[in-house]
Amino acid sequence: MSLLNRYSLRKLAQIRLSDADALMKGRRYDGAYYICGYAVECALKACIAKQTKRSDFPDKKTVDLSYTHNLTQLMRIAGLQSKLEKDATADKTFEQNWSIVKDWTEESRYQLHSRLEARDIYESIADNSHGVFQWIKRCW
Fold this sequence. Notes:
Blueprint: H1 6-25, H2 29-50, H3 60-66, H4 71-77, H5 81-90, H6 92-101, H7 115-126, H8 132-137
Helix pairs in contact: 1-2, 1-7, 2-4, 2-7, 5-6, 6-7
């Protein structure tokens, strides 16, 4: 198993978003929806990893809390909550995009999702101007 670090998490986030795009194009909407959330999860975990200095021993509570799939919790652990609130207030499209993305859970792997649901979460993440992925990339 390879070591997870900031750089591998960034790479995984980008790969998962590409996977979601391929699944959307292949009309595999359930998988696309599911993988979209993992792209955001990996991106947020890259932001969390950035907080740890190379020689520092990480805080156990932060480490324990980071082992979650909850995107809202990961946003807080990454220290991005106040920036999220400020930017969402200034950019209503971004606010709407985050409101769609934040409701993703790992339990979606057991659910069926329509083309519309998959399109909404994918576009909310991948939008180059107001998307959640582009916003998170600024911190990693």
